[in-house]
Amino acid sequence: MAEELAQDYSGYFKASNLDQELKPISVGIDRMMLRLEEFENLLELVKAESSVALTQNVPQLLALRPELDVLCDRIDKLEQFVGMVGRNLDAVEKQVQIAEEELDIPDKTINVLLKSLNIFGKPKPTERLTNRNANGLYEPVAVFKTEQYFRPNGPEQKPMAEKEGSKEEPVSSGEDCDTGTPEK
Q1: Of 18, 99, 101, 175, which sits with the fewest C-beta atoms within 10 Å of its C-beta?
Q2: Which helix (H) or strand (E) holds 47?
Q3: 179: how many CB neighbours lie within 10 A of its CB?
């Protein structure tokens, strides 16, 4: 019985042509191995690139941090300066508007016509705003002076340090003039 079973299996393997059935599987495995090798090479390349970034680029970025902090401080001071100029401009515009009302200077708009005709029945204000103090003298709004914030000829620069093999960059003195910080 065992011999008969062996002969049956032998005949089965001869008739089934195992090479043709296993060939597509073998080709698929070979392609998968090739892709796996390519992925491994790509992974090694990424590791090498990241180590270069860590050893070279990160220290360069860390070296630039103090300059970035100074730049951020200058931007913050500039924002404060712009806000202060805006508040001064609002105060001056308000004084100009009051002065125009005191001198009856027309706005050159339809609003002047509507106000003068009093179409909407609004009563005219009995107490008018004025730019004058109790003594009747004009008091201007205190505004900033540009000399406090900007030097006439721009930022002063110290002489450039000469070093062999390095780029020469001007070194600014202390607080730069365009930061919005008043000079002392």
Answers
A1: 18
A2: helix 18-52
A3: 19
Closest CA to 171 of 180, 181, 162: 162
Taking the C-alpha atoms of residue 140 and residue 149, their distance in angstroms, rounded to an integer, is 21
Q: What angle (nearest 5°) sits at the alpha carbon of residue 73, between those of residues 70 and 76?
A: 155
- Tokens 């300066």 found at: 81
Q: What phi-psi label fits residue 104: left (phi over 0), alpha (psi between -120 and 50 degrees) or beta?
A: left
**Amino acid identity for residue 82 in this structure:** V
Buried/exposed code over 109-139 (b: 16+ C-beta within 10 A; e: otherwise): eeeeeeeeeeeeeeeeeeeeeebeeeeeeee
Q: What integer pLDDT is reported at residue 21 of this predicted model?
A: 78
What are the backbone angles phi and psi of residue 8, rounded to the nearest 5°? -60, -45
- Tell me how far apart the alpha carbons of residues 136 and 81 are, in angstroms, rounded to a whole number: 33
Taken in order 107, 110, 115, 117, is the CA torsion positive or negative? positive
Ranges of H-type helices in 103-179: 110-117, 146-149
Report whether 177 contacts 150 (CB < 8 A).
yes
- Kindly report the average pLDDT of the chain as a whole number: 75
The reported pLDDT for the residue numbered 167 is 44
